[in-house]
Structure formats: structure tokens, C-alpha cells
Design brief:
about 525 residues, Double Stranded RNA Binding Domain, three-stranded antiparallel sheet, 18 strands, about 40% helix, about 20% strand, binds 3-methyl-2-oxobutanoic acid, binds zinc ion
Length: about 525
């Protein structure tokens, strides 16, 4: 009888820890709803003690997203656990996930605690979590570098105290598949209670082995895989959800003992949604969801594909929900066509936001003959990611540019800050650079442009420009923002001002400045 693999999605927690991938509460909710459509079993929605924003996001997701278990992360401390519970308790299926490091290096250098003290903390934390919530997951952080016998002692203590899932992470992405598989097998040999709980794995991709390690662990008895959409996450990222799922589905003979309940047709829309909202682009040649994943360039391959798809294609693009064609919306296409595209792309939005998108699409169609699906999705991402009124400290007013092949580009940007018009001037190597300097000058050099990505959404010189930027504040915090416009310079200014707002709101909330 094949066993169900539990898919634990941590895009909104570990994935969101990717440098610069900060999402607003509303964006997190949109992604969580799409994860429910993808049919993941568990959504780790955030780390509630880490910030008020994270707490609000986990709470909102617990209130509004039905289907998956909603989980909140907590260090093995009462205060963290209580905060996680206060956020997840609104879900019909809440889970508290508590963790503490158990490797020698972490215990000694980070926690400065003895092995015995750590075990005491595990017992206390899991017992407390259990007193609040039936479903408790425990993680010995840096497990793959933890002495195996000690790790087993910690596991026994956690299970005895009420943990129902034990997660074994490769926190620093150091393990090799055979080695990691042996660790999981050893767990079942050494800890007799392990068969009464779910053994989970959580692998990072520092050496590019997160998926291989996760699939190997499955064969050794682990039944829950923690992963993220597009493999986003700290440093090199986490185990990629889509790769795990499509391995299990495509290699039926190899994984005949396992199945997942993921609706694979939602994989591509979910990948696009996460990429658009986080601003983290999917590399072209990324397995499963990259733009080239189903493109056949070489003549010999094309010939094979035309004769019989199976010659070079091991998966059907349709199975992951890849639509290929870029449906065109004309001036006269109705509201329903736009709504249908939003729906199939995972944008479940408020009526007011949908109206905004429709107006923008119509305006664009008036200027541009045809608007393609990708244009609509980019507009949707910018509307979904729009800051709420109270989060707009700086409003873009006007952008003026002087540039040419014999003129040093100069920009004048005016913004409105609390009702006052402020003007900044800047020069640069190009007009975008000049705009960036002008905006920086308005706020007295508080921010630095760190990353700039420009994507022409559809081909042609009349394409919508989609600009994603990352700015850094003086304390090294990174803020990412997106801007869409028919004009590259205006799209850049929109993105920069939005990033600036995010930095200012953060400063206000954290430092009360
Ligand atoms: O990588 C890790 O160890 C983690 C734990 C907190 C689960 O993210
Ligand atoms: Zn992790």
C-alpha cells in the first residue's frame, strides 16, 4: 500500500527568510490561498515572535485559509510558543513547531548550554506547546551535524513530552544523500518511539543536494518533506517543492511506495505567483518551472519531439499547469477574460483590487493594441503588492529626465511627504541611475540601490516594463519592490519609491523613528 508523503510548505517562513524577499501581510495571504489550491498538507505561515508583521500574517492565514494545517514557528521558549499559539489558534488545524539547536557547535557557541540543559529546554517547550495545541512538531536544529546518539536522546525526550512530528533538518546544507539516509534509518533503529510519530526532513541546498537528500530520506522512512516553492530560502535556499513532487510523480516505478496529494496542475501558477510577489526570479534553466524547462532548441531534439514527444520529454508541461500560449486580450475583451486569468494564476483578490486591475488593463489596451496574459499578471502582482494607504509615507509626484548621447543624464524627482512637496535632483550614468540618485537625495542618502532587474513583460518596444529593485538601509536591511509601467524610467521610479516606503515603515515600526 503506497504511503502518503506529507508536504510541509515553508515558503512563507523559511522561504521568506531569503535575503530581500520580504512580503506584505496581504501578499502572504494571497500565496497561502494558492498553496491551499496546490493542496499542500501544511503551511508554515511564519515565525510569529519575529515581528508584528509576521504575527499578523500567520493570524490572518489561520483565520482565512482552509484545508491545510496552519503552522507557526517558535524557539523552544515559552514566550515564543505562546506567540505562535496566539496566531495559529484561529485555524481549524493549528500546529506549533518548536526548535532548538543540538549540534555541539551550536550548543557551545550559540546557545552556551550543556547537553543536559538543552534536553530540559526541549521537555519544557514541547510540554508547554502540547498544553496549548495537540499538533506539535519539534526540530533539533542542525541535526545533520548532531551526534547521532545525542540526537536520539533529544528525540525520545520530545516524543515523550508530546511531539507528534519530529523534523530532522540539514540546516546548513552539509549532508550527502547516503549519509543523510543512514541518519534517518538509524533513527528508526535506535528510537523505538519513532514509529509512533511522523519523521520529517528539512534540507537546505548549500551544496545543491536538498532534493536528493529529501528523496533519499523518504526511502528510509521519513514521511514529511519540508520544502519551498521555487526552492527559495536562506542562502542557497531550501528543498524545492516542485522538484520533489515531480520526481515522485514522474518516476512512478522508483517511488511506487509513495504518493502525494498535490494538484500538480497548480505548480506552475504557484511558482509564477511566488516569483512575482517576492521579486525572486526563477532561473531560466530551473528544473520543472524554469522558462527553458520544456523548450527544445537543438534541431535533433525538435525533430524527435515532433515525431514522438516522449523522445525528449519526460513530463507533460500541462501536468504542471504550464499553459505556454500567451493569451491576448484586446481592447474589447471583457472583464471576465481578465478575471479568468487572475483566477487561474492564483490571484484571489478583493473586488476593489480586481476593478483596479481591469482599469489598468483597459488603459493599457487603449495605448497598446494587445495586452497579453503576462501583462495582466504583472499588473496583478503590482496591485496585490501595493502598499496600504497608511503605509505610504512618500508619494511619487513627478519625474523629469534630461538625457542623450552627448548629455550626462539628469533627473528631477518630486515626491509628497506628509503633504509637503520635496524635490530631489540627481545625475547618473544613465537615466535610471539619475532617478535613483534624485530619490536618494530627497531622503538624505538613507538608502542605497543594491539590485536592479528589468524585464520587458512581452516582446516589442511597447512592452510593459517590470522593474524589481532591492534597496538597503544604513543598517543593512534589504527591501525589495516592484514597479510596472510602459515607461522604464517611471517603472523604476515607482519601484524605488515603494522600496523607500518599505524602508521607512520598517524604521518607524522597529525603532519608532
Ligand atoms: O533549517 C532549519 O534548521 C530550520 C529549522 C528552524 C526548522 O529552518
Ligand atoms: Zn531551514
Amino acid at each position: 500500500m503506497p504511503k502518503k508523503v506529507i508536504i510541509f510548505d515553508t515558503t512563507l517562513r523559511d522561504g521568506e527568510q531569503s535575503p530581500g524577499a520580504s512580503l506584505t501581510v496581504q501578499e502572504k495571504l494571497i500565496i497561502a490561498k494558492q498553496l491551499a489550491r496546490l493542496n499542500v498538507d501544511i503551511i508554515e505561515a511564519g515565525f510569529p515572535i519575529s515581528s508584528d508583521g509576521d504575527f499578523e500574517a500567520v493570524k490572518l492565514i489561520a483565520q482565512k485559509v482552509e484545508g491545510p494545517v496552519i503552522c507557526g514557528l517558535a524557539r523552544a521558549m515559552k514566550e515564543d510558543i505562546k506567540r505562535a499559539w496566539d496566531a495559529v489558534k484561529y485555524s481549524k488545524k493549528p500546529r506549533i513547531h518548536t526548535f532548538i539547536a543540538t549540534s555541539q557547535i551550536h550548543m557551545e557557541k550559540k546557545l552556551r548550554k550543556s547537553k543536559e540543559e538543552i534536553i530540559e529546554m526541549v521537555i519544557e517547550a514541547v510540554r508547554y506547546a502540547k498544553s496549548l495545541c495537540d499538533d506539535v512538531e519539534f526540530t533539533p536544529e542542525d541535526a545533520s551535524r548532531t551526534d547521532i546518539d545525542y540526537m536520539c536522546d533529544v528525540m525520545r525526550a520530545a516524543i515523550k513530552s508530546g511531539a507528534t512530528t519530529i523534523n530532522i533538518p540539514d540546516t546548513v546544507g552539509y549532508a550527502q544523500p547516503g549519509e543523510f539516509g543512514n541518519r534517518i534509518r538509524a533513527v528508526f533503529e535506535k528510537v523505538k518511539e519513532a514509529k509512533n510519530v511522523i519523521i520529517s526532513i528539512h534540507c537546505h541546498d548549500d551544496l545543491g543536494l536538498a532534493v536528493a537528500n529529501s528523496l533519499t530520506a523518504l526511502k528510509q522512512g521519513a514521511l514529511q518533506i519540508e520544502c519551498t516553492v521555487n526552492g527559495i530560502g536562506e542562502r542557497a535556499g531550501n528543498c524545492s517543492l516542485e522538484e520533489v513532487i515531480m520526481n515522485i510523480k514522474t518516476r512512478r516505478n522508483f517511488f511506487k511506495d509513495f504518493y502525494t496529494e498535490i494538484d500538480t496542475k497548480e505548480i506552475y501558477p504557484t511558482s509564477q505567483l511566488v516569483s512575482n510577489l517576492t521579486g525572486l526570479m526563477v532561473q531560466r534553466n530551473k528544473a520543472i518551472v524554469g522558462q527553458n524547462a520544456f523548450a527544445h532548441e537543438a534541431g535533433i531534439h525538435q525533430h524527435g519531439i515532433l515525431s514522438a514527444k516522449e523522445t525528449y520529454e519526460i513530463m507533460n508541461p500541462e501536468d504542471i499547469g504550464w499553459r505556454g500560449t500567451n493569451l491576448v486580450i484586446g481592447k474589447h475583451s471583457g472583464k471576465h477574460a481578465v478575471e479568468a486569468i487572475l483566477k487561474e494564476s492564483g490571484y484571489e483578490l478583493e473586488d476593489e483590487q480586481v476593478e483596479k486591475i481591469i482599469t489598468k488593463v483597459k488603459n493599457l489596451a487603449d495605448k497598446q493594441k494587445n495586452v497579453e496574459r503576462d501583462d495582466i499578471i504583472a499588473i496583478a502582482a503590482s496591485v496585490a503588492g501595493a502598499l496600504s494607504k497608511e503605509d505610504v509615507i512618500v508619494e511619487l509626484d513627478e519625474v523629469k529626465i534630461i538625457t542623450g548621447n552627448k548629455t550626462k543624464p539628469k533627473a528631477t524627482v518630486s515626491v509628497i511627504i506628509e503633504g509637503d512637496k520635496k524635490i530631489g535632483k540627481g545625475e547618473g550614468v544613465g537615466p535610471v541611475d539619475a532617478v535613483s540618485h534624485a530619490i536618494k537625495n530627497i531622503v538624505g542618502g538613507e538608502i542605497e540601490l543594491k539590485e536592479y532587474n528589468l524585464k520587458a513583460i512581452t516582446g516589442g518596444t511597447d512592452a510593459l516594463a517590470d522593474v524589481t529593485i532591492a534597496i538597503e538601509d544604513k543598517k543593512g536591511n534589504i527591501f525589495r519592490a516592484q514597479g510596472i509601467n510602459e515607461d522604464v524610467i517611471i517603472a523604476s521610479a515607482i519601484a524605488l519609491v515603494k522600496g523607500l516606503n518599505k524602508a521607512l515603515i520598517f524604521k518607524k515600526k522597529i525603532h519608532g523613528e
